[in-house]
Amino acid sequence: MKQAEIHELAKQGMYHGEPLKGKIEETHISWVILSRKHVFKIKKPVKLSFLDFSTLTKRKHFCEREIKLNEQYTDIYLSTLPIRFQKNSWYIGGRKGKLIDYAVLMKRMASAKRMDKVLLGSGATEYNIRALAKVIASFHQKARKIRSPFSLPVAIGLFNEIVKTKPFVVQKLGQEHTNTLTKSIEWSNDFLEAHKKRMQQRIDHGFKRDVHGDLHSGNIFLYKKPVLFDCIEFNDAFRQIDLLYEIAFLCMDLESFGEKRFADSFLAEYNRLLPCIEIKEDEHIFNYFKCLRANVRAKVNLMSATQADDDQELAHHLADAEKYFKLMNHYMAAGSSCP
């Protein structure tokens, strides 16, 4: 679907005989329409280096896969529905009209309970963090172990992909952040070479598992029992990762909100429930993983900045990219004394 069609669907579309009158939220790979009782997630028709939503058949497949994977830890995913157009009107579900696309149907949760919004309002508590650690550790304990070996070239490539954004960083963010980008690549290369043996040992010890892959505060609702959602369905390699890399995203995210105390508390409780830091070197690897997560978030925001519709949106994504570059610097400094 196209942007204009999404706006028409959200404003005028019908589901079960009722108008959606929905609000649109957008990422670089999907649109989300929030109606009063339901959420409709529609994949953008894009093909990137790490995903392919370019055809209707592929988008339907990944809608169905998203539901299947997320059903492991939540019941908010309901079904895949067709989006149809008939007589100048839009419909979700049903059999009449021209098939245009597909949507994932979800229950609507209370937006105020989404963890990133709770953190912005300084409403999170130690109880929330411990409860979240319990939910995640329980899920991870049951997750399938992955035995595919550590690949140094793949690991190097994952971190260094950010170099593609360098011309844009030079143009929009200046020399300081360009230097961070350049320095981080050299730092990462050296770290991975020095710790590749331990990375493989962690796989041998069962720490690489099929987990969530995108575990940050925007994908968590802080109810009494926290709700996880929106795992990565489009690329298995992004989901089949070291447990430390999985939780590094959440801890880095908490630190980006200025909540290091919660990051430390989460890690301590999670590691008590599911010990995954065996030796001192694992702490250094965890720090590296936080830097890698900040790297990926910087890259995503830079990609979104290049697609910004207006100056306000551009400024928002550039400010977030700067925030993650600063975190990368922090993690590199913390890791500079690593053996």
What is the annotated CATH architecture of the largest domain? Alpha-Beta Complex
Count of domains: 2
CATH class of the largest domain: Alpha Beta
The unreliable regions are: none
The count of strands amounts to 14
> SSE order in H/E notation?
HEEEEEEEHEEEHHHHHEEEHEHHHH
From the N-terminal CA to the C-terminal CA, the straight-line distance is 51 Å
Mean pLDDT comes to 95
Structural class: alpha+beta
Shape: globular
In the CATH hierarchy, the third-tier topology of the largest domain is known as: Aminoglycoside 3'-phosphotransferase, Chain: A, domain 2
* Main beta sheet: 8 strands, mixed
Number of helices: 12
Q: What fraction of the residues are assigned to beta strands by DSSP?
A: 15-25%
CATH superfamily of the largest domain: Aminoglycoside phosphotransferase (APH), C-terminal lobe
Strand order of the largest sheet: 2-1-9-8-10-5-4-3
